[in-house]
Design brief:
The chain is an alpha+beta fold. The chain is built from three helices and four strands.
Length: about 120
């Protein structure tokens, strides 16, 4: 039996939306680097993890590449949200992220979130 669609949804409560939310995380958060991605992790204001995406045009020139990176991050977050530490996450692309194949991007997203979980447990 499939889980209800709401269980794996990506609601407004699960997102960083306002500029002040991004600013708080980017200024005071911990930066965790991976090969082509970076996560900035800060304390959460609510009771569940939230995701923000900041994919610069400088790092991924084409809109379809930026959208693909954002889609991979949202999908990973949506499916694994229950297992992630309760933090605010801002995912940023580094040089070369736009050249990754979809399976490689998904694998790198998995590795990044695993690295975040390992470094931020108890923070």
């Amino acid at each position: 039996m499939l889980a209800s669609p709401k269980r794996f949804g990506f609601s407004v409560e699960a997102r960083l939306i306002r500029p002040d939310e991004f600013k708080r995380v980017l200024q005071s958060g911990k930066r965790i680097h991976h090969d082509h991605l970076m996560a900035v992790v800060g304390s959460v204001a609510g009771d569940s993890p939230r995701l923000g995406l900041a994919i610069a045009k400088r790092q991924a020139r084409h809109a379809h590449d930026r959208n693909r990176i954002k889609r991979a991050a949202r999908e990973y977050f949506r499916l694994h949200r229950a297992q992630l530490p309760t933090l605010d996450y801002v995912i940023m692309a580094k040089s070369g992220a736009d050249k990754l194949s979809p399976p490689a991007l998904n694998h790198m997203m998995h590795q990044l979130f695993e690295k975040v979980a390992a470094r931020c447990v108890g923070s």
